[in-house]
Amino acid sequence: MGRAGGHGVRVSIDHHQHLGGLPTGCETTAEIGSGRGDRVTPARWEPTMTRMTDASTRARDARLRAALEEAAGWYRVRLVALRPATVMGLLRERGLADLAVGTPAGVRWRVGHASGGVSRTGLVEHLRRCGFGAEEMVAAGLAVPARPHGGAGGGRWGSGVVDVLRHRLVVPLVDGGGVVGFTARRLSEDNPAVPKWVNTATTALYRKGGHLLGLAQQAEQLMAGRGRVVLVEGAVDAIAVDLAGHIGLAAGGTQLTAAHAGQLREAAAATGGPVLVAYDGDQPGRDATLRAADLLGGLDARTVRLPEGLDPADVLVAAGARGLRRALGVTVPLVDAAVSARLDRWAVHAGNPVALVDAVRDVAGLVAAAPADLVTATLLDAAAPS
Fold first, then answer.
1. Residue 102 in contact with residue 36, Cβ under 8 Å?
2. Rounded to 5 degrees, what angle do the CA atoms 230, 341, 196 make?
3. Cα gap 288→68, rounded to integer Å
4. Residue that terminates a domain, selected from 201, 235, 257
5. Pairing with 304, which of 25, 109, 162, 322 sits 20 to 30 Å away (CA)?
6. CATH of the domain at 37
7. In sequence order, which residues have a C-beta less than 8 Å from that of residue 318 and are 6 or more positions away?
8. Does 154 map to a domain?
9. What is the β-pairing status of strands 168-175 and 112-114?
């Protein structure tokens, strides 16, 4: 049985050790649900970035990537082979049950299950068998030091390390070189104090503000120019958009940043089409749309008018892939929506000439940055003093 090495990663299924249909050895990152036993090849799309060339950095990163790929396979097996009722129920509720089998979308996204257990060390023990140390697991964002019991020591890591993710639906975060982290959703709504979504902490490979979820998973569609680039709020919505035939991308657990905006510009250039912004149809979604308008100035960007309180995944469940495609086809220029939203904020000061000047100043930058063909008559009418 091979192990994850320092400078290279050989990924396969170890056919010699199985327990109840699950691989128990290392190298489980093949796409189990496909029935082919083939590895998911990392997508090749990667936005422009500075690449470090230091040999020690490359060696460290190779080890971390190997651990993360192994973890992704371990999570995936626990979904595809065991099909736990809580996880399958959540996937069915969101119209995503096909992700648990070897469909094209299932292979692309490699959604998995972080199981629980009293020991809280299922993944940790698996990675130890694969030759990874506690320091490497912590550095990869897969484990955290356990709280010492009774003040007892036990070396640098106290009483050891435990899994970061437990009792969650897990979606790998991927770049052009493979898995760099995970975003994970709680399985139950029983305890609102438990965060609904959590992301891998900042590591040498992953920084939340610089990673646009979905770019690598949908690299083939992106480079072939199939579908529109659609910016959504989270992983489930991004997958829903993918199932509807477009390219779903999300900042994933953080506000849109300038780095995300740069990646969106590159993605739009690759497809030759606009960026559609399909944030949730609630107030936080509208606020996020305003932020997107600030960051995407000069780009052909349009907003999708989703029904109040609904997100793309809700539309997928209610109307199917065709219905979501239709909904994504009804757009207005993003700058129109942003100007209208900003002017609405000034409505309470109607009749105040000073406030009127301030309102015009508030939207002037948006209008000035918009492509000329997107500065519509409606927008100009709304922005003009009356």
1. yes
2. 55
3. 31
4. 201
5. 109
6. 3.90.980.10
7. 310
8. yes
9. antiparallel
